[in-house]
Amino acid sequence: MEIFDLLIQGFGIALEPLNLGLVILGCALGLFIGAMPGLGSVNGVAILLPMTFLVPPTGAIIFLAAIYYGAMYGGAISSIMLGIPGASTAVATTFDGRPLALAGKADKALITAAGASFIGGTISVVLFTLFAPPLAEVALAFGAAEEFALMLLAFATFVGLGSDDIPKTLFSIFIGLALSAVGLDIISGEPRLIFGDIPGFFHGIHFLVLAIGIYGVGEMLWTIESSHEGIKVSQASFGLGRILEHIKGLKDSIKSTLMGSFLGYFVGILPAAGATPGSIMAYGVAKQISKAPETFGKGNPEGVAAPESANNAASTGSMLPMLTLGIPGSPTTAILLGGMVIWGLEPGPMLFIEHQDFVWGLIASLYVANLFAMLINMAFIPAFIAVLRMPFTILAPIIFVLCIVGGFAPTQDMHDVWLIVIFGVAGYLMRKLDYPMAPAVLAIVLGPLAETSMRQSLIMSDGEFSIFFTRPISGAIMVVAILLIIWPVIQLLLKKRKAARAA
Questions:
Q1: Residue 89 sits in which domain range?
Q2: Is the CB of residue 172 less than 8 Å from the CB of residue 477?
Q3: In angstroms, rounded to a whole number, what is the distance separating the alpha carbons of residues 31 and 349?
Q4: Using alpha carbons only, how large is the chain's radius of gyration in Å?
Q5: Structure confidence by residue, pLDDT tens digits, 89-146
Q6: Per DSSP, what are the bridge partners of residue 191?
Q7: DSSP strand pairing (183-184 vs 191-192)
Q8: Comparing C-alpha atoms, which of 105, 113, 104 is closest to residue 35?
């Protein structure tokens, strides 16, 4: 009962007028930041960190946490409305969110995303409240070998995302992995794959450059071509009846939402994992457990619910190792950690004892932020729908400008702008030739994480790959990942054998 008493005290702090106002303002700003390609929660929290020196430390961290929460909600908006992922956490939402919008069901996609985000956020905060210390110990058991096994598991879940054409899917994955290796070697510092010492490649290829090129410019080129065939891309309708119908329809994707919530939270608590692998894995698992996996990528609401519930759950989960161990669970929580140190709050086990008001005020504020982020998101749905009512002759130049600005913002290098155009044309050609684009984008996101953890593990074991199988946790995850990787091949062989017998 002590936990509930502390939580009630926390609500008393979170609902103070100043802190409540900071929660609402943070959620609104986060929603806008998450929806803008090229910004995302990391940049948003970093940019607004200096503002927090005007308020007490508890209010400051509550404000930044609310921005983080709002950005998780907002990332789905540009993914659904424009087909441009606002951040890496929203990449998987694009796969089914954008087809739903093109089919005139943008309101369904947005409500599904908001509802799933709310459920994922709520479940994760409850788990955070009840099981913080034991879960922190589980997170601490994950080293480099376990992180690599987890990354391999994430790859395994999307081997079958593209189509039944496994060679094309694998080709797309390998292209993404090759592009993720561009830049400086993480161990030796030697340049690699820099295409004749072109300076722009030294900082590598940012995931947003590839994602915006393929899903922004590439999709726009495809739509321009398709519109000549009579396809309407600006269908959009909105009404209270439809909203209530879609809210009731959330129960149809509850299985994927619950799965994404628990999976996302577990991945989120692992140090340095973050919400991106969790959302990707949730999408892959949702497809595998679905009764209609062939509809994924064509506008299945479960393909929106799973990654959205996962990335919101993971955003809460990533705060757990930050508060209990002083280890950031994501890039955004690394900035929050820096802010706490500036305010004289030392993260770790003693934080829960020495600064109870701060900790429980923050936890209570997550409940409040989750509610307000959903309400603000729902309130702005008519404005989001209005975007799709615009004629495509107006919308296309706006999308193109957002693509250019979004790609230029992270590095402020014109080299990346040219890469966006090149990847846009490549994405258009991949679409024409029926090559799956999702695995390439996911590979460039997960590639650096997988490489870092793999090479750290091999250094620890003097180059012995057995380290991934001899450690209990990593060994179990590796076995599951390998089985998932070879399963589509087994299915394909079984289909061919059945077809041969029928002939």
A1: 2-502
A2: no
A3: 32
A4: 22
A5: 777 888 888 888 878 788 888 888 888 889 988 998 888 888 766 766 666 677 788 8
A6: 184
A7: antiparallel
A8: 113
Tell me the pLDDT band of 230, cut-offs 50, 70 and 90. Answer: very low
| CA 73 to chain centroid | 10
In this structure, the chain runs to a length of 503
Q: How far is CA 236 from CA 233, 262, 343, in A?
A: 9, 33, 47
Kindly state the tokens that stand for 462. Answer: 């003097």
DSSP code at position 191: E
Classified as helix, coil or strand, 82 is: coil
Which amino acid belongs to residue 145? A
pTM of the model: 0.74
pLDDT at 502: 74
Q: How far apart are CA 324 and CA 232, in angstroms?
A: 52
Query: What is the number of structural domains in the chain?
Result: 1
CA–chain centroid gap for 89, Å, is: 1
For residue 489, which of 176, 177, 165, 175 has the smallest C-alpha distance?
Answer: 165
The tens digit of pLDDT for each residue in 330-362 reads 677 777 777 777 777 777 667 777 777 888 888
User: Residues 136-151: pLDDT tens digits?
Assistant: 666 667 778 888 887 7
For 362-402, give the DSSP string: HHHHHHHHHHHHHHHHHHTHHHHHHHHHS-HHHHHHHHHHH
Q: Is 235 in contact with 388 (CB distance < 8 Å)?
A: yes
Task: Say how far apart CA 130 and CA 142 lie, in whole Å.
Answer: 21
